Amino acid sequence: MARADSAKQTMQTAARISGMDAVGPSLGMAFRLRRLEVQSELAHLISDQPGIGRADVARITGMARSTVSDHIQPLLDTGLFSEQKARYAGRGRPSLGLTLNARAGIILVADIGITHVRLVVTDLARQKLAEDALPPDYSVPPETMLERIASRFQELFQTQQLVDIPLRAMVVGIPSPVDFERGVPVRPPIMPGWDGFPVGEWLEKRMHVTVLVDNDVNLMALGEARSRPPSESPLIFIKVASGIGCGIITQGGALHRGADGDAGDIGHIRVAQASGLTCVCGNTGCIEAVASVPSIMRQIRVAKGDETIELPELGVLVSSGDITAIRLVREASAQIGEVVATLVNMFNPACIVLGGKLAHMSDDLLSGVRAAVYRRAPPLATRRLSIESARAGRDAGIIGGIALGVDSALSAHGLQKLQEATPGTAGGVGMAD
User: Based on C-alpha coordinates, what's the Rg of the chain?
Assistant: First the structure.
């Protein structure tokens, strides 16, 4: 697996320093922190390859089998994993396989959009246990809307008999730039009253679980990447809907958020075609002001002289062959393609994925972006580049949220909290964050 391959050097280094815990306090603390990091990598490896044996773990990581056992035992003691006889036909003693205990924890995902709020409860094996939805209401304070989400999750726990399974992480995706470290939306264009509100902190106090808050497009990008083979990363996910944004996945499969969490906010790149047009961000000339779905609808109303045309009608107009709608969609797609071509020049991705309302209602976005990229980007950046529509569809944000939640639960910090909550567990108590 790609995760195991990328972690091999880290774990080999950890194996070489095993036994250093007897030295001074600084090196001892460094060892304990390293121990948690190695356990995290092993936890991900076992999660990705259920039934894997200790000998295979040792072979993949380059660690001694005794060192593997030393690191895995605390994970078994907490109940996070179990070790059972693998299916066996032949001579000799049956081998034992390590498997994630799916019921060792619950992950919550709240996918908050402009027109929807989807709630999903999964176990650590990423299997859905419950799902629900409720309409968003941005006319009320954020506390009110978050309380509705928290209450609905608790109702799901009761009706699905999940109250006895511990919560491990909660992930919230919102249509806003997000300070990921603080779990705070920053100047959201469509969420009045949410600017600077401590979404993560508020929900942690209410739900008593680690809460991760991220931009919705970032989670969609992660969901698309996790739905594809590792060879398709680096990956850039472009969403064209009420706004225009992108999520960037590195070659190692991680989200690139930038220094402050604002990487991928391409909707506010200045383009000549939008000169003089005011964007929702307050500036003029942004690509979002001329090529987002609302801006296309505005242009259709002007062209037809009909202010009564509503946003949902765009798909109907395109599918029915309306000349004006098709022309404006194609023009917007070409303009978006110019911006995407610049991203290709900068990041040299293996895959460009197009999603959002405009991608779902028309193939013109895909053809427009392809044409611009292959015309503007150099051959070296495009010779193996794949440009295609999203595979995960409306579930992309949910899949990405689940992945982020499981990654958090199996992180060094997540394992530390799990071991601290398990009396008598070796290897985790007292370790620093």
Answer: 24
**Structure confidence by residue, pLDDT tens digits, 61-96:** 999 999 999 999 999 999 999 998 765 444 555 578
Token pair of 96, please? 């034992």
**Residue 417: both structure tokens together:** 């909290």
Are 428 and 415 in contact by the 8 Å Cβ rule? The answer is yes
* Angle subtended by helix axes 25-48 and 65-77, to nearest 10: 80
DSSP assignment letter at 166: P
Residue type, 124: L
CB atoms within 10 A of CB 307: 8
Distance CA 406, CA 414 (A): 9
According to DSSP, residue 123 is labeled E
Q: Is the pLDDT of residue 314 over 50?
A: yes
Which has more confidence, 362 or 200?
200
Interval 28-47 mean pLDDT = 80
The 3-class SS string of 184-239 reads: EECCCCCCCCCCCCCHHHHHHHHHCCCEEEEEHHHHHHHHHHHCCCHHHCCEEEEE
Structure tokens at 232: 């398709």
- Render pLDDT for 150-165 as a digit per residue (tens, 0 to 9): 999 999 999 999 999 9
3-state helix, strand, coil in the chain (%, to 5): 50, 15, 35
CA 199 to chain centre: 17
Backbone angles phi, psi at 235, to 5 degrees: -130, 140
Q: Which residue in 419, 379, 433 sits closest to 43, CA to CA?
A: 419
Report how far residue 253's alpha carbon sits from residue 234's, in angstroms, rounded to the nearest whole number: 7
